[in-house]
Design goal:
single chain; mainly alpha; TLC domain-containing protein; TLC-dom; transmembrane; membrane; transmembrane helix
């Protein structure tokens, strides 16, 4: 059973107290853990909105297919509508939701960064509250993230992206389900389901320029666009997936290890292990991806200098 949200508005920074009314609709709908029926209805609405937005974008490309020869191919128009209308859009929404609630859902991380408390104290104290406390805003973010991943998985299968992408989406769905069903690690949802998706949003836009998973010929037609998005992705990846990921991951791993060793919440411990495994796997992948970003960057600089 989930613990209620114990983060008091009185303890929130003054700016957040003044703007708390902007979250009243969320806090009202998610004041208590929603029922399965509510989550299913919410998912139906989100899926309908995403399909409508994607097909509206597809209709726009259909109407303007004479703008460029690349748009005259129906498959290309579908790829652009998917990557922009669903993937990039949802990642930006998740990032916005995560940034909006980060300071109130897990203030210890902010206080440790600003020096109000020592990082060691934040890591050692209150781990059960951070791992097993229900937060309306974090739940809302996790629920949106879950249904986006459902749509993403369906698209991955329909577009035949490959088993690697299916496995990745299955893992993210599993983690999101654990957050929703057992209220595990909701304090970390604003970063891992939200802010970290900034780099993914840029990557979804950049993917359009890939000849395999994007639109063939788009990079040759708009080379400056590819370079600009590539540079933006490299910066966003290093900030979100290297620096902030390491910072938040430090606290999460400490909390998880303390919970596995000392917590009496046996029902939730298997999910803590699942989260630890997912975090470890993604962290390893990101080290590999960082190396690839460096190699690609060096190749681009070499090509420009010696072209």
């Amino acid at each position: 059973m989930c613990r209620p949200d114990v983060i008091s508005k009185a303890k929130a920074p003054p700016a957040l107290q003044k703007s708390s009314s902007s979250f009243m609709s969320v806090e009202g709908a998610f004041a208590q853990k929603p029922s399965l029926g509510f989550c299913a209805a919410y998912g139906a609405v989100i899926m309908a909105v995403l399909y409508a937005f994607e097909h509206s974008l597809l209709y726009f490309f259909d109407e303007h297919k004479d703008f460029h020869p690349i748009l005259q191919n129906a498959t290309n128009r579908g790829i652009l509508a998917r990557h922009i209308g669903t993937d990039a859009f949802c990642c930006f929404v998740c990032a916005t939701m995560g940034a909006a609630c980060f300071m109130t859902v897990c203030p210890e991380l902010v206080h440790a960064a600003t020096g109000k408390i020592k990082g060691y104290q934040a890591a050692r104290g209150g781990y059960e509250l951070r791992l097993f406390t229900y937060s309306p805003r974090a739940y809302h973010l996790a629920l949106f993230f879950f249904w986006y991943q459902v749509k993403n998985t369906i698209d991955t299968i329909l577009w035949n992206d490959g088993i690697v992408f299916v496995a990745h989406h299955a893992m993210t769905l599993t983690v999101a389900y654990g957050t929703l069903r057992h209220c595990v690690c909701q304090a970390y949802a604003p970063f891992f389901f939200g802010i970290s998706e900034i780099s993914t949003a840029v990557l979804c836009l950049l993917a359009n320029f890939d000849d395999t998973h994007g639109v063939p010929g788009l990079a040759d037609a708009f080379p400056a666009g590819k370079v600009a998005l590539g540079a933006a992705f490299a910066v966003a990846f290093i900030v979100c997936r290297v620096l902030l990921w390491s910072y938040c991951g430090y606290f999460f791993v400490n909390d998880a290890m303390l919970a596995l060793k000392h917590s009496s919440r046996e029902a939730e411990k298997p999910w803590v292990k699942v989260f630890l495994g997912s975090f470890s796997g993604l962290s390893l992948l990101q080290v590999i991806w960082l190396g690839q970003i460096i190699l690609v960057g060096k190749e681009e600089l070499y090509d420009k200098n010696f072209a």
